[in-house]
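Hi everyone, sorry if this is the wrong subforum. Our group has a chain we'd like a structural model of before ordering constructs, and none of us has done structure prediction before. Sequence below.
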Amino acid sequence: MINEDEVILDFKEARAFLRCSRQKLYTLMASGALKGYKVGKTRVFYKTDLKRLIEESPPPPSVANKKD
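Answer:
Right subforum, don't worry. Here is the predicted structure as tokens:
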């Protein structure tokens, strides 16, 4: 059985998981917020790193908190 820590996603799968653009994923890597690994010509990510990124990011502003 595969441990959750060992699940690896490629670039396209990581974009789908995070629901972000290609440029945003590159920006996250460049800023150091997300660690990507090169395996041959492919860039891969640990799923736990993607989950951590989501958990650590600030929540979006609530519609209820917006002032008209």
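For your construct planning: The first helix runs from residue 11 to 18. The chain has a mean pLDDT of 87.
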